[in-house]
Amino acid sequence: xxxxxxxxxxxxxxxxxxxxxxxxxxxxxxxxxxxxxxxxxxxxxxxxxxxxxxxxxxxxxxxxxxxxxxxxxxxxxxxxxxxxxxxxxxxxxxxxxxxxxxxxxxxxxxxxxxxxxxxxxxxxxxxxxxxxxxxxxxxxxxxxxxxxxxxxxxxxxxxxxxxxxxxxxxxxxxxxxxxxxxxxxxxxxxxxxxxxxxxxxxxxxxxxxxxxxxxxxxxxxxxxxxxxxxxxxxxxxxxxxxxxxxxxxxxxxxxxxxxxxxxxxxx
Length: 267
Hints:
The protein is mainly alpha-helical. It has one domain (2-261). It has 11 helices and no strands. α7 runs antiparallel to α9 and α9 runs antiparallel to α10.
């Protein structure tokens, strides 16, 4: 029994190292290939690159002996219709609530004005359709991060494992956003503002997955085509300091939301 547990932990550690290094190396090579050949990084790379974590997880499952099949490692079992929709509600509506509260606080601080109810109702159908389409790419990312890697790190406890997953997830975006900044698609400040806050978002998504035992809340929550600044009128007019303030508020509220959603410790 002790020997079996030792072997399992050793294999898990090998799988973590192989997975993280391969994913980060793959996205770095893909991102740098375009500027090396003098080509502007196309937008489709961002969507297609989200499937790298899923593909690498399949490779690791082939190379390292791990107990269980793809369904278990990708956390595809929803646990029933009710639990499936409850998870989706937390993943999508929970994030929407965080963004709405962030925008509201920002407006009270004098940073922009909230979008009108009429505008939000008008764009709601577009948001729903876009969310469903984006899940085709976020599925490939979430089964790798919040499914495979988070399961490998369960022995670290929820917060220890989730923090590691989120940290690597942030690093995964650095090559893409760095190339976009170097090529002028984003400013370096904008690149930082869309990269660093991913740590808090990752914790929230991990909390939803751990609470419902399924990757689906993260797949749909990650696909939500919305951010706090989108709920403010004329977000393009916000200054750098105002954008940092909004991002900081959003970061803090995501941490609070993650702590609420995360599973409680058993006595």
